[in-house]
Amino acid sequence: MDLLSGTYIFAVLLACVVFQSGAQEKNYTIREEMPENVLIGDLWKDLNLSLVPDKSLTSPMKFKLVYKTGEVPLIRIEEDTGEIFTTGARIDREKLCAGILMDGQCFYEVEVAILPDEIFRLIKIRFLIEDINDNAPLFPTTVINISIPENSAINSRYALPAAIDPDIGINGVQNYHLIKGQNIFGLDVIETPEGDKMPQLIVQKELDREEKDTYVMKVKVEDGGFPQRSSTAILQVSVTDTNDNHPVFKEEEIEVSIPENAPVGTSVTQLHATDADIGENAKIHFYFSNLVSSIAKRLFHLNTTTGLITIKEPLDREESPNHKLLVLASDGGSMPARAMVLVNVTDINDNVPSIDIRYIINPINGTVVLSENAPLNTKVALITVTDKDADHNGRVTCFTDHEVPFRLRPVFSNQFLLETAAYLDYESTKEYAIKLLAADAGKPPLNQSSMLLIKVKDENDNAPVFTQSFISLSVPENNFPGSQLTKISATDADSGRNAEINYLLDIDAPPEFNVDRRTGILTAVKKLDREQQEKYFFTALAKDNGVPPLIANATVFVTVLDQNDNSPIFTHNEYNFYVPENLPRHGTVGLITVTDPDYGENSAVTLSILDVNDDFTIDPQTGVIRPNISFDREKQESYTFYVKAEDGGRVSRSTTAKVTINVVDVNDNKPVFVVPPSNYSYELVLPSTNPGTVVFKVVAVDNDTGMNAELRYSIVGGNTRDLFIIDQTTGNITLQEKCVAADLGLHRVIVKAEDLGQPDSLFNVVIVNLFVNESATNATLIHELVRKSIETPVTQNIETADASSPTSDYVKIMVAIVAGTITVILVIFITAVVRCHHSPHLKASQKNKQNSEWATPNPENRQMIMMKKKKKKKKKHAPKNLLLNFVTIEETKADDADNDGNSVTLDLPIELEDQTMGKYNWGTTPTTFKPDSPDLARHYKSASPQPAFQIQPETPLNSKHHIIQELPLDNTFVACDSISKCSSSSSDPYSVSECSYPVTTFKTPVSVHTRPTDSRTSTIEICSEI
What stretch or stretches form a coiled coil here (predicted)? Predict the structure, then answer.
């Protein structure tokens, strides 16, 4: 069994040696009593740590001093550099090594851990404490008493008590001196086998007690240190009677072993000494030398009479394993006998192992706090197990009592590193109470246990977890601001601040929502409006208070429920529709568009007309407005009513809008002249009137509106002398040239007023009579001239030299009539001859003619311009072509004989046929003129384009189409198409009501004086084609 036990111990020791990889030792020598902050060494350099392979370290390299809790270390180490310095604690070798023999070395040991764990090393540093001369040698007492017999021979030696110096080596006791020896005594120093220096007093002269029985001197002891230290004691020598023999020990050196558990009173050894004297001089007295330590004197008892040494107090090998007992035997003489007793205290397994925990991670209130994120092999503490017993009784093993994620790794003899063996998890185990067990190899073995508390520090390694990752909720709109919607919640497996959760909304969250940071209550901070936004998607966050914080998110889906909080909305507050007055009944006026931002039945809108009338209807769903009446702008230009839009909500809401229907004018009214009031009115123009002077203003009106009522004025007939021009916009007739004597008389100007209607314009004409004379005193004559002028089928100016001479005027008129008659006869004759000559050609050309023929004057070349006209199929039918009136005026200057026979015929249209009025074909869908109105009516279109006229000059006219017709007497010329009746708005008794004109077959040539500047004769032929 002993063999097996020894094998087991050897295996453990071998394992310790094997596992010492990563453990080193380093020795330094320091002197005691060194001051603070003295550099001792540099571990970085001394251990060649610069050669450590470069590794990716979790933290910089650090040096940590490992020492027992509560212990004041004698050195400190810089964590970053590894430099070792002394501290303020006193380094006293005599105190540190009090139990060590005088010749032993004194060591101070500490451990240093090199961190982090990736490069962990444990360094055992041994400091050899060098002695300095900090203690003076001292005698046991300040007064030394010694007795010397008076018959002592010269050079006799007597032992003196030795001085004690705690220092060692050269710093210990080196020399003794006798002061004031009076030449009777001398002093010598001998060295014992143990190396101690013992003083001896030498008798140098004979003594005589009767002469002097007491001598007082001083003894000085010195050490060899620097500076040297010394002390003195008074030596008092008493001279006694003669004692011839000294005691002698049977054995001068005795070594004994005694177990440390020997009871008190146990005999250690028995000393034997003899003395040859007799009587009192033979009595021997045993006592301990003053060199015996106080511990030995406390533990052992010496019987002064018998010399028996016994155990005075219980022994403890661990306190002092051996003792030197220097025993002196004296018979009263001066030279006692010496015997050295060496007592070895043998070990008994009487000490349980001790467990010394030196923390690498500093504890807090005795508990190590270790992060749950600590990596594997994190060093927690250096466990040192010791046993004061010796040999196998002091061999200790250390282990833990149950499975924990920690292990003990041997590094030095009886030293273990406690490190993590597995990953820690705060959520599974929050703390560990590790029971360390230490057992020795004694029989029976003794063991010791110690508790090491480790609390796992929670790290923020768990993110919050929402109870619902997707949160869906419905909220009615129009909520009160701040109303609670729901409570979101999350949990965190961590603890403390790491488990404290703050709720917040992500940056994508709309400003309408907020969440309480602590409670997680989600609120709507604003009133929600479904019409603005119906659905909200945003992210809610749960963030813990860890460092760094961990965040979880959940999606929040909010649906806003509709309420009937919106009235129907018209696209316009007021609708203006524009429809043509010829829009048929039940046609489309326009479309009313209405919306309701609500949803479902709340947005179903029904339209109705509020006004109680049947003029219009509206479709309740589509909003189409249709008329039940026919429009006439001249009777009523607009219609106004209100439309109501009502939704289908449980509590319905409604809105009204104003609708105005404007009847758009159709160009169905021709212009009507207001000034002059009739064709028979006249205006006096003084011959002295300057050119550019407005002599008359023509005014016409049109019952239509817009462009249909905008008029343009022009002179289309008369004004043969070009004396007058007219402003097309204002109707102002202006004198163009200075009047001369030949311009006196009545001038007939035919003015046309034409509107700008689309697609076809309408016009009217009026005769403006301008009487150029100095006065208009004879109104009757002027009216007669006007009447005759109108009845005369020629466009001429009736001249008068003096308005006050009726005879002269009459003669001129008669001459003019005769000349005109002759001219007409000549024209008829010439025409007949030409027609007879060209009759075959005319018949052929008439077959190819399809269009109307018009002839217009060309005052520049005085040529005839003929215009085509459609050929009539049957003569009995009503005329389908336009009437062409031509006035042929032959002008002959009577006082110019050179110009006889030179006449020019000029064909001018003096009575213009009303042009065809186009019939407008309006679409059924009206329009408004507002671009943003819904479904506006289309623009009306014309289905009746203007008649196309083809002008071909020098086209021969068939004589049967030419008639001489007098000008109408009214002030209005109307335009009509070929089949419609012509209506006149004039009340003049001479106005024509139908397109039937009297047919005449004669031409009446009239001779009229021309302007003095024109020496040629002009003939104006008035023809009417029927």
Answer: none
